[in-house]
Amino acid sequence: xxxxxxxxCKSENTQKLSSIVDSGTTxxxxxxxxxxxxxxxxxxxxxxxxxxxxxxxxxxxxxxxxAPARKPTILLLIGFGFLMMLAWGxxxxxxxxxxxxxxxxxxxxxxxxxxxxxxxxxPALLEKWNNTFYCxxxxxxxxx
Length: 144
Hints:
The chain has a domain at about 65-140. The protein is about 50% helix and about 30% strand. The chain has three helices and five strands, in the order E-H-E-E-H-H-E-E. The strands form two sheets. It has a three-stranded antiparallel β-sheet. A two-stranded antiparallel ribbon has the order 2-3. A hairpin with a 2-residue loop joins strand 2 (about 25-40) and strand 3 (about 45-60).
């Protein structure tokens, strides 16, 4: 049988991290619908608009104890690609080529590093997080 009492203070007031994060996270969605009217070329014209907004909020404790995040990969490449084009446009052909090549190399290296972390290290961190408990009395983290 698992010992769920805190090993530090022996309190029974312990809880799994995933449970704390789930109960401290709120998701909300709102829908808005509207209408517009006007004239185009002297003829009346009408239309409708709609939008959906999704929000997520977390308690301070849920935010503090959230699961380890994956590192960015695809957006990282897009960002560095944009910077490469910007360097090319601002610095001219010769200097822009050197700057773009340097940014491309740096971006690709960072992409490779983040991809390796996401594949090799993140699953173990996530598994450890998923098996960790929190003591509400002394704030210790432990694995039974």
